[in-house]
Amino acid sequence: MLCCTAMMDLGSELGVPPYVFYPSGANFLGFMLELQALHDEGKLGDLAELKDTESEMAIPSLEKPLPCKFLPSVVVEKEWLPLLIDNTRRLREARGIVVNTFLELETYALGSVSVAGNPPVYPVGPLLNLNSARPEEEEEEEYKEVMEWLDGQPAGGSFAKEQATEIAAALERAGHRFLWSLRRPSEMGITGVPGEYENFDDVLPGGFLDRTSGVGKVIGWAPQMAVLGHQSSIWFGVPVGAWPMYAEQQLNAFQLVEELGLAEEIKMDYRWDGGMMVTAEEIEGGIRRLMAAENDEGRKRKTVKEVSEMSKKALTEGGSSCSSLSRFIQDVIDNIS
């Protein structure tokens, strides 16, 4: 795994060739390789300061310059950046890097990292485990209720009260069907486990649940993988809204919206711990653009459907990810001492 590169030394001692599984996509891999190179050359500025400017960065894994306001949260946090730089430096010592992506999705990014001096990159994704979405026994009834509600819909995080109010206003004004998993923020922040609200009326505008009962459903815990695997998700060719929170999500959002055309922006420069409030107007605008894209048979809808089909084909025998996995396995066999 990415943050376990120290184990590469132990593997070498045991005669096991060191390979790294990279759970993020090729875009973030190329981004980190570039940051590490700039850091080691003494050319990396203060990213925490750059994120508040209108400047841009040229990143080899992106076709377009990256506005610094979209720098990933994880690299502008000074306690995390040294760890990421060190781990990325160790990546260059690996025999290969297995990445959770597929060639047809990130052709440009994969080309940028598959150059002399870098380890071979093996795109084997998308890695999904939709069949493991069953809940624990005590959650079975809620699971059934949520899935029954989803089945009745056409195919196609945790927030404080102030932000939840803005989301509620946007959902109500937009008038589209929704499933909202609303949970109480952890006192430990983004790294903590969110809790449950005892009464949604305590956090939502008065009368919201009654007014939206015919088109929406507000729940606490959600069977996330089952919901994402339902016919109303991107796996089945539906556009998504980009509202990044933390980690590398800002970079992912930029790629999905600006480069791949697979998502609509809600607020791409949002940071969960930055004290930023996304207004009801911004959220409503994103929802309306998103639903227009979903209901339109134009370019974006066509692009999303094509990518959905390519993602499935990549995993079949002879597909790009299946072939990449075969090359990876053969390389491991050839390099075992």
Please give the structural blueprint.
Elements: H1 7-13, E1 19-22, H2 26-40, H3 47-50, E2 56-57, E3 66-67, H4 73-76, H5 81-91, E4 96-99, H6 107-113, E5 121-123, H7 140-151, H8 161-174, E6 178-181, H9 208-211, E7 216-219, H10 224-228, E8 240-242, H11 249-259, E9 263-265, H12 280-295, H13 299-314, H14 320-335
Parallel strand pairs: 1-4, 4-5, 6-7, 8-9
Antiparallel strand pairs: 2-3
Secondary structure tally, helices = 14
Shape by Cα distribution = globular
Q: Mean pLDDT, rounded to whole units?
A: 86
Strand order of the largest sheet: 1-4-5
Q: In percent terms, what proportion of residues is strand?
A: 5-15%
Through-space gap between termini: 22 Å
- Structural class by secondary-structure content: mainly alpha
Unreliable residue stretches: none
The profile of the biggest β sheet is: 3 strands, parallel
The helicity comes to 40-55%
Question: What is the chain-wise order of helices and strands?
Answer: HEHHEEHHEHEHHEHEHEHEHHH
Number of E-type strands: 9
Multimeric state of these chains?
A: single chain
Question: What is Rg?
Answer: 21 Å
Describe the structure.
This protein has helices spanning 7-13, 26-40, 47-50, 73-76, 81-91, 107-113, 140-151, 161-174, 208-211, 224-228, 249-259, 280-295, 299-314, 320-335; strands spanning 19-22, 56-57, 66-67, 96-99, 121-123, 178-181, 216-219, 240-242, 263-265. Helices cover 42% and strands 9% of the residues. The protein has 14 helices and nine strands. By secondary structure, it is mainly α. α11 (249-259) links the parallel β8 and β9. The mean pLDDT is 86. Pfam families: UDPGT (PF00201). Pathway: Pigment biosynthesis; anthocyanin biosynthesis. Belongs to the UDP-glycosyltransferase family. Keywords: Transferase.
